[in-house]
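Narrative of activities, Objective 1.

The group set out to show that a structural description can be obtained from nothing but a protein's sequence at a throughput compatible with the screening campaign. Below is one input-output pair from the validation batch, recorded exactly as produced.
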Amino acid sequence: MKRSRFRAVIVFCLMMIFLSFSGCGSKESEEVQDEKETVTETKKQTKKQVVKEIQEEPAEAEEKYTFAERVCGRYSHETGENEYEILEITNFADNIYAYAGEAYSDDMADELDTYSFWAVEFIPFSKESVADYDSDECDFNILCFSIMSNLGKYWGAPQKVKLKITDDGLDWIAKDGTTTHYIRDERVASTFPYTSYEVEAPSFVSSEMRGIWKQIDSASVPYYVEFVEPSQMRIYRKDPASEVFLACGGLSLDTEKGEAVCTYSVLGCGDMPNSFAFSIESNGKVMEIKPDPDNECGIDIFDSEKSVMFYAYRPSYRGSSISKVDTITNDDIVKAGIDENFTSEVDYDMPDVNEGFYGVWISAFTDEEDADKLKSELDDKGFDAIVLLSSEWSEMNSKPFYCVSAGRCLDESEAEGLLANVKSEGYKDAYVKYTGNRLNNRVYYTCSSLDDVTVSDSKVVLNDLEISDPSLGIDYTMTLVIDDKTEFDKSCETEFFANYEENDTPLEWYKRNYDYSVNDPDKYMESGPALIGIFEVSVTDGHIDRFLGSYWWD
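Output recorded for this entry:
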């Protein structure tokens, strides 16, 4: 009996265990199951939502650039075997410039060697077009100049061109529709090779220096200075009526003097290095640049005898109170446009190069540099000053003085009006005088090819040369002759004339180099193509009287 009860208890326990595994207590199991399904569904919904949000979220916008930014770069156009036209286009505040020239290279060289160069300014027909993010073409008038041959003054009348950005480069479309295609070419040497410097500190340019600074105390057109990290300095000045200055370089530190040194090159001047030493005092809003008067600078940027004040912030006034203070940006820099410089594509009415004019004469010097300083002083006061050599004009002093006039006038009454303005500026001894006709012309000729040169035993004929007349500020074409009466001027630095031999006459020098160009090209090219480039000469009726200089070779 006991055994039967024991068995019954055992059976009962087994049944209970069985029921517990097969669903007994199912309420609790269903809740757990529901919770698991809810979590799973939530995860699915969350995943779907994340995927949906990723799909709907717009892709990060591609950074866009203006036409002025996109057109920048180095380009070349092959004109013959190992001969090229080159461009490096750069911009400052959407003002577009180019270093242009002619270059050569052999098949083994990894760089194009530029032997003839100048600068180009692009004046857009629409200032808005160069800031356009979508357009790949833009119409310009172009102006050419050179720091070396005419100190940044424009050479002559503007020429219309269209620039069109292509997949591999640039189309240069002339007024007559002629298209020259330039390809992007890193073999073109940099216009500003000194902008990168290895500096000990991570950044030579401090946060206080960084950005654009505008000259405060300028009498006319201000300079802009931009400091770019880590160690770059850019200097810019634009006079819409006459000239452009753009220099870029790298900064280093003269630890002995505690001065910054900018080693730079200038647009339109080749890559020759210049240096500018200075110290800086700044409170973050106003900066004082103090040039070192002992630093020999190839091209003067600022007056080395005095400090130059700049500011980075300008207050905005409303009534008599200051409403806010803004940082100077690219938008504050004058943008060139046809409306400001030219009403149309101009064809200048070129004056007779021998025709006299009335000048308002301030002073005369035996040293041309002294005359140039006075000219700059007058230009800063708003005058269109000129310097001429008195011995070149029939009614001026026959001895060679560099004479400075506040302008060029067509008649005496116009000159008297200018004289009153000049005296009001403190030049009490100024006077009006007629120059008389031109006796001989001190000009620059450009020769880019020997194809139009005729050489005989007694003379050299240079046909249809490009002539730049800095005194009259005009360009024209002319045929010039070198013969046994042509001389090297006493002031001429003949070491800059490649393959010059002691006591050479210009005719002997030219004929020797021409013979090299035909029979010994390696000798001819040893110091660069001697007969190609820009030369300063004195000319009378198409005859070269004197060679005064060659400005292409270091």
